[in-house]
Amino acid sequence: MEDKNLKISIAHLYPKLLNLYGDIGNIITLKKRCEWRGITVEFEEINMGDTIAAHDLYFIGGGQDKQQEDVAAELYKNKENLLAQRDKGAVFLGICGGYQLFGHYYQPHNKEKLKGISLLDAYTVAGNKRFIGNVTAKTDLVTPETLVGFENHSGLTYIQGDTKPLAVVTTGNGNNGKDKTEGAYFKNVFGTYLHGSFLPKNPHFADFLIELALEKRYGEKIKLSKLNDEIENMTHENLVGKAY
Ligand code: GLN
After folding, report:
1. Which atom of ligand 1 is nearest to the CA of 64?
2. Residue 30 contacts by C-beta under 8 Å, 6 or more apart in sequence?
3. CA of 38 to the centre of ligand 1 (A)
4. d(CA 60, CA 110)
């Protein structure tokens, strides 16, 4: 199927509250990598109080504990709806705080536990150390297998059941600084601690998500046409293995 006649719908969840370290760059990357191929993007920004309609791809960024508290309560109201979207094959990408809310809960320090929406079989508890710095991790989902980004979190995420690690950390801390895992995925739901923002520096993963979202919409695998990623790949390679 030609790129030109394709369409994809993308929702950005709560960007006014969860958009740490320019996580909006992930949305810009998804939009641009579609538009450069002539793929029409239907985009919707979801803010507090909005209903969440069916989309091919949902994105949520990261934020400090306070913003997470506000979003968690709102997101929880949409739990059943978003679980149903997951089970219909919708693609989700959550970064850091947003990723944490994809699990069963996030337990901050000395505060009420924040209920998550259980898209992932995972949970997060606040640690005593803040992990800050560059991360390189290796995944078997895309080629090249490296993913790079920047982490800043005190939350320690543990994954279980059928939820799998997105990648194995080779530089940095990842999910909890202990089990060498970074991020998580189940079905087409993906979470990662990598800010930076994530997708501009990992264009291969951006295309992987777009192809999954198109497959969900059209019911068949669609291979995207190649783009000139010379600058993106140079940026990516320059960050592989960089610690601080
Ligand atoms: N508040 C969460 C933590 O510190 C998430 C931070 C973030 O989104 N960067 O773990």
Report:
1. 1
2. 10, 41, 57, 59, 199, 206, 209, 210
3. 35
4. 25
Q: What is the pLDDT of residue 196?
A: 85
Ligand 1 atom nearest the C-alpha of 152 is: 9
Structure tokens at 22: 């320019």
Give distance in angstroms: CA of 22 to centre of ligand 1: 14
- Residues (pLDDT < 50) of the chain are none
pLDDT digits (tens, 9 = 90+) for 49-90: 999 999 999 999 999 989 999 999 999 999 999 999 999 999
Active site amino acids: 96, 195
Residue 55 near residue 46, CB atoms below 8 Å: no
Q: Which residues of 151-162 are buried (b: 16+ CB within 10 A; e: fewer)?
A: bebbbbbbbeee
Helix (H, G, I), strand (E, B) or coil at 132: strand
Compute the distance from residue 223 Cα to the ligand 1 centre, in Å: 34
